[in-house]
Specification:
Largest sheet of chain B: 4 strands, antiparallel
Strand content of chain B: 5-15%
CATH topology of the largest domain in chain B: Multidrug efflux transporter AcrB transmembrane fold
Shape of chain A: globular
Order of helices and strands of chain A: HHHEEEEEEHEEEEEEEH
Strand order of the largest sheet of chain A: 6-5-4-3-2-1-13-12-11-10-9-8-7
Oligomer: heterodimer
Strand order of the largest sheet of chain B: 9-10-8-11
Shape of chain B: elongated
CATH class of the largest domain in chain B: Mainly Alpha
Number of strands of chain A: 13
Largest interface: A-B, 40 and 48 residues
Helix content of chain A: 10-25%
Structural class of chain B: alpha+beta
Number of domains of chain A: 1
Radius of gyration of chain A: 20 Å
Strand content of chain A: 35-45%
Number of domains of chain B: 3
CATH superfamily of the largest domain in chain B: Multidrug efflux transporter AcrB transmembrane domain
CATH architecture of the largest domain in chain B: Up-down Bundle
Number of strands of chain B: 11
Number of helices of chain B: 27
Distance between the termini of chain A: 19 Å
CATH architecture of chain A: Clam
């Protein structure tokens, strides 16, 4: 659910923009042309993966984590999940979401306000993502006006009945797996690193390993494949649509497919970054009284 | 027909080698079909795919993402804390983690302490997570696992036994027909874990899916063991009677050809080998052998007699003799085959597809057996050298004195005939009493089936079933589905409360160990949300609150758990009903109890109900089978009577020849009633066998009596002559068939044992009544029968 405000502007992205500036303002100046040619050749080298300075697996994963889950310092979006189950039945969940990054690559806070289905409207889910201990989670149940703390021990369980797990949505700690760069592949015209990840503690997860294809330019994951304990592919994650919003490459549509159990399409709209969300709204008091400035 | 057949036989024995080659070619062609065999061991296919209950079953499995499951129970009766010690729990965890790696297991739906969520509200924090992880640090932690499970009404008696000593894993599988393979792999994992150090706990594997699939596997194994073993024994007994390897081999070749042609035809026609059709060889073998014995017995008597005449030079014209034998036996053999074919053919009237296929192909096999016997045996005899044939006749004492045992048998036969005539009235009275007592026994018959019971009592699957059902809510699952006319109805408090009282009502039936519904989840969430206050263990007051509780569960637990009990639109609810027994009669009681409840308390909001689940499915096809069998048995009997009347051109003799059959059926099913054995699928199907074979002896006896009466001077002389060669053939048949099927008694599968019992009983009772009651009645009725 953080995909929409994900993506920090990677160094590469910035360089990309600078080059376009160069081309506009100093196209006819020699230094500008030289600079442009230099940048273009550098980009080509990077894109083909022939550069000796290619990042290692851990760096790629770290940068992808930042690009995907920590874009901007805060963000808001409307999220629609369309869940199709194994019997081809479709149900939808819509919610507004606010995010605040306490520290890039580390602590974050989320505020999720459910809008549909109608009988759960007004239910609120709040998460403090922690790095040193289990996350803190709260749920507000309007029908009985009750705020309840919810344990967050199992991060591999489904988020809101979708095919995504909590970890798919809010990020799996990069330190929980070992990472290995096993090659480069072209995914729909985009060059990507292929990273193989193996869990350090295999007992607490349902997969044996997973592969992620990370875009070499904006570092967003393009595809993920999860393999079960028997080594069979059972879950696929796809970034179906990526748009640049506020200069930040953002996944605006993703799909999670679980073998034999259907799929979930997640669409993000009204994506905004750096809108000035304050940390204080991520508090129990704001569960009974949603911050109207962000939650309309 | 007869002249045509005789023409064929004449041509065949004129060119015996060509005829033999044709038989070999035909056999090779049918044999070539066999590799295309499709095996179907799923009892669900006892119902045709468009049967409403099967459509409903598929729908329910789809609606609630349900799968057939293998049940693995871990029980420890030797320790007071049962399996709840750190070591045993860790072994259970290890087992669970290994099970999910097996191909064909739906890992995400495994029910086990390491995968199934418990919900608790301890310390103001709502926790929805599995009961335990891979490691259990100490005894206190182990006992906490137990106590948490026992405090959860959903998990108690399902995952953890109510007495707190045992744990149950439910392993969902993609395909039911893989149950046996997967259960074998689970057993292997258990052995490996035990090899790494085990305590006093025991591991059990059972479940309806395993029982059904394992039965299929065992059945085909039995087909490879019991049938050849029975064949071997029949061969040896016949060798004892006829003392000629070559001739006895001919009967066995006839039996084998019959089996190969019939199964080849079945496979070639594109039918799959079902549980029933796997029994075809077992059924056809004795029928083919019976035909051969009659023809060999008669040929052998004639050959020996002719060879013994002084002018014969010890030789006889085998071609002429075999032709006259075929001529003589054509009619009784045709009619015994016809009646047997009618008996099995009547199964076509049942509404159960595999039984129809079985009936049709056994009927076809009987006709083939008759044809092969009549053509092949003469060809075979023609090809034998005269010296072989001479040996054949020399030792069996047909009219030739010298062999003591044969003399004794002959004397016994004669005295049997005379006894029947002199004590005819007493025999009739005793028979009537036996018949009456048998009929009373039939009234005590209980209709019931349970695929688990197809295994003998000591089979691991049945042991597991007994042990686990003594600890848990039940290893047999049925589903009661409530369908509302519109979405959202299920979350209404009124609906949930209705489900609650319906569950309470069903739990009153003692076979129901436990029921689970969406109401249980809602109540548990309410309880845990409200700081475990007992009065909050209830359905909340508004539909919104219910929906939000369920959404909370979806948010924090495994959403899939929820959707086994309710559909995502809240238009359907599924009540899991766990039964301690898979007996159909028990399932019927539960169904009746629920129906009575619906009658008195109609469901709210126009909700409709229906049953599903394997346990329930078995009830449906059982009902169809019982009444279908009765109908087919009835119409088969009428048809046989008509054929008899036509054969003897006398309704009186027709009726008379029906008597051994009637008494045999009554006697066998009477015994079943008295012994308390359930009238189940195998026993129902065997009524066709009884109908088909019980009349054979009567046909031979009545036909030969009539013929011999015309050749004899008096009734008394006729009796003596009938009780010579014809009765010897009957006695030989009785011995060969009843002893031949003794190997079936040692089968681990109850239906095979039952078949063995039926063959012995049919031979004994129909043979006994044919040899005693039939002559007694003929003696009494000799006037009207024109036998005087």
């Amino acid at each position: 659910m953080t995909r929409e405000f994900s993506c920090i502007i990677s160094r590469l992205c910035k360089r990309d923009r600078r080059s376009s500036l160069l081309s506009l303002q100093g196209l006819f100046s020699l230094p500008g042309l030289i600079g442009l040619l230099f940048l273009l050749s550098l980009l080509t080298l990077l894109a083909t993966g022939a550069n000796a300075a290619e990042p290692n697996a851990d760096e790629i994963v770290e940068r992808s984590n930042l690009a995907y889950y920590y874009a901007g310092t805060d963000g808001s979006a409307t999220v629609k999940m369309t869940i199709t189950d194994s019997a081809e039945r479709v149900r939808t969940r819509e919610f507004s979401m606010l995010r605040y990054d306490v520290k890039d690559g580390a602590e974050q806070k989320f505020y999720v306000y459910f809008r549909t289905p109608a009988d759960v409207e007004g239910m609120i889910f709040m998460v403090w993502k922690n790095t040193k201990k289990d996350d803190d989670r709260w749920l507000y149940i309007p029908a009985v006006d009750l705020v309840k703390r919810v344990a967050a021990k199992n991060k591999r369980s489904s988020f809101a009945g979708s095919h995504s797990t909590y970890e798919d949505v809010s990020g799996r700690s990069t330190g929980d797996d070992t990472h290995e760069l096993i090659g480069s592949e072209n995914i729909d015209g985009r060059e990507a690193y292929v990273i193989l990840n193996r869990p350090k503690d295999a007992d607490i997860v349902e997969f044996s390993e997973y592969k992620v294809w990370i875009d070499k330019v904006h570092f967003l994951p393009l595809k993920g494949e999860y393999f079960d304990k028997a080594g069979k592919l059972y879950k696929t994650l796809l970034s179906e649509r990526i748009e640049v919003i506020d200069d930040i490459a953002t996944v605006v549509q993703g799909r999670v497919t679980v073998e034999g159990r259907g799929s979930t399409v997640i669409q993000f709209s009204n994506v905004k970054y750096n809108v000035g969300i304050t940390e204080k709204i991520f508090d129990e008091r704001y569960l009974r009284r949603p911050p109207r400035r962000w939650i309309k | 027909m007869k002249s045509l057949l005789l023409k064929i036989v004449t041509h065949a024995i004129a060119r015996p080698k060509t005829a033999l080659a044709l038989f070999v070619i035909a056999t090779v062609i049918f044999l070539a079909m066999v590799p295309r065999i499709k095996i179907d061991t799923d009892p669900e296919n006892m119902l045709s795919p468009d049967e409403p209950v099967r459509i409903a079953q598929t729908q329910v499995k789809r609606d609630f993402a349900l799968h057939d499951s293998i049940i693995v129970g871990i029980v420890d009766d030797k320790s007071s804390t049962g399996v709840f010690t750190p070591e045993t729990l860790e072994r259970i965890a290890a087992l669970s983690y290994e099970i999910v790696k097996i191909d064909g297991v739906i890992a995400a739906d495994l029910l086990s302490p390491v995968t199934t969520d418990d919900i608790s509200g301890d310390g103001g924090m709502l926790t929805i997570e599995p009961l335990m992880g891979r490691t259990v640090i100490d005894e206190a932690a182990a006992l906490r696992v137990r106590d948490r499970a026992l405090a959860n009404p959903i998990l108690k008696d399902m995952l953890v036994s109510g007495d707190g000593t045992a744990v149950l894993l439910s392993v969902p599988i993609k395909e039911k027909h893989e149950s046996h393979r997967i259960s074998t792999e689970i057993a292997r994992i258990i052995d490996e874990i035990k090899a790494g150090g085990a305590g006093t706990e025991e591991y059990h594997i059972t479940g309806l899916a395993v029982a059904e699939d394992t039965f299929g596997v065992e059945m085909f194994r039995q087909m490879g063991i019991s049938a050849p073993l029975a064949g071997l024994l029949i061969f040896l007994i016949m060798l004892f009677f006829f003392r000629s390897f070559a001739l006895v081999a001919s009967a066995m070749i006839v039996a084998m050809m019959t089996v190969i042609w019939t199964t080849g035809a079945l496979i070639g026609a594109g039918f799959s080998m079902h549980i029933m059709s796997s029994m075809i060889p077992i059924f056809l073998m004795p029928i083919a052998v019976l035909d051969s014995i009659h023809i060999l017995s008669d040929f052998h008597t004639r050959y020996a007699a002719e060879a013994a005449t002084p002018s014969s030079d010890g030789k006889a014209d085998k071609k002429a003799i075999i032709l006259s034998t075929v001529d003589e036996l054509f009619t009784p053999m045709f009619f015994t085959s016809l009646t047997s074919a009618i008996g099995f053919g009547s199964l076509i009237l049942t509404p159960i597809p595999p039984v129809r296929v079985f009936g049709a192909f056994v009927a076809l096999g009987i006709v083939l057996a008759w044809f092969i016997t009549i053509v092949f045996i003469p060809v075979f005899v023609t090809l034998l050298s005269d010296s072989t044939l001479k040996k054949f006749g020399s030792d069996t004492g047909n009219g030739t004195p010298g062999n003591n045992s044969t003399d004794r048998l002959k004397r016994f036969q004669l005295s049997l005939g005379r006894f029947a005539v002199t004590h005819s009235k007493k025999i009739v009275v005793v028979s009537l009493i036996v018949f009456g007592v048998s009929l009373f026994g039939i009234t005590k018959t209980e209709v019931n089936d349970n695929p688990t019971r197809w295994f003998k009592h000591s089979h691991p699957i049945r042991v597991a079933e007994r042990v686990l059902n003594s600890h848990f809510g039940g290893t047999y699952m049925a589903y009661l589905v409530l369908t509302a006319p519109e979405p959202g109805v299920i979350t209404r408090p009124e609906t949930l409360k209705y489900i609650e009282s319906l569950q309470a009502h069903m739990t009153d039936v003692d076979v129901v160990g436990k029921t689970t519904s969406i109401t249980d989840v809602v109540k548990k969430v309410s309880y845990e949300l409200n700081d475990a206050a007992d009065e909050m263990y209830r359905v909340p007051d508004t539909s919104k609150a219910v929906a939000q509780y369920l959404f909370l569960y979806e948010m924090s637990g495994d959403a899939d758990d929820l959707y086994h009990l309710v559909d995502p639109e809240y238009a359907k609810a599924n009540i899991w009903v766990q039964l301690k027994s898979g007996d159909n009669k028990e399932m019927k009681r539960v169904e009746t109890a629920a129906a009575a409840y619906f009658e008195k308390n109609p469901p709210p909001f126009g909700i409709k109900t229906n049953w599903a689940g394997l346990t329930y499915l078995n009830v449906v096809w059982q009902d169809k089978m019982v009444y279908g069998m009765l109908k087919s048995l009835g119409s088969g009997a009428v048809l046989v009577f008509i054929v008899m009347t036509l054969l003897f051109r006398s309704a009186l003799i027709g009726a008379l020849s029906m008597i051994p059959l009637t008494i045999t059926v009554a006697f066998i099913y009477g015994i079943i009633g008295y012994v308390g054995k359930f009238y189940d699928m195998p026993i129902a199907v065997l009524s066709a066998l009884t109908l088909g074979i019980s009349i054979d002896f009567a046909i031979h006896f009545a036909e030969r009596t009539r013929r011999l009466r015309t050749e004899s001077g008096s009734w008394a002389e006729t009796v003596d002559r009938v009780f010579d060669e014809p009765v010897r053939a009957i006695i030989r048949n009785m011995v060969v068939i009843s002893l031949g099927f003794v190997p079936l008694f040692f089968s681990p599968l109850v239906p095979y044992q039952t078949v063995g019992f039926f063959f012995a009983a049919i031979m004994a009772v129909s043979g006994g009544t044919t040899l005693l009651l039939l002559p007694a009645l003929m003696n009494i009725l000799k006037g009207p029968l024109r036998l005087k």
